Amino acid sequence: MFEWIKALHVIAVIAWMAGMLYLPRLFVYHCAADPGSIQSETFKVMERRLLRAIINPAMAATWLLGLWLIWLIGWDGFKQSGWLHAKLVLVIAMSGVHGMLSGCVKAFAADRNRKSAKFYRIINEVPTVLMILIVILVVVKPF
To answer: How far apart are CA 37 and CA 47, in angstroms?
Structure first.
């Protein structure tokens, strides 16, 4: 059963990351659209659907399945896995980015975005860096 849960966890992570990498890119293009325009309204629908239908459920599944895996390895296994502690810190950071992006969806929906396309281009790299670090910790288990 452990391997099945791990496989579902990886699938959820992939879906979460796909959305986390795509949403800021939508924001970059949305910045160029005039508020109230057809293009802006289309971006609002795309952003809302991406967040609600993919990113939020994928994050929830990632957390639930990941915590289930921790429960299965037990307290002793968890205490001895320094790499897992570091991974959890990075996943919490990723969840924080997720929350920030959710706030951006709300700001765009209300035509109150105050951030530039350049800001979103930079923010688009944060999930990538976190994902790289998380994968290294999981695969290499350096400590």
So the answer is: 15
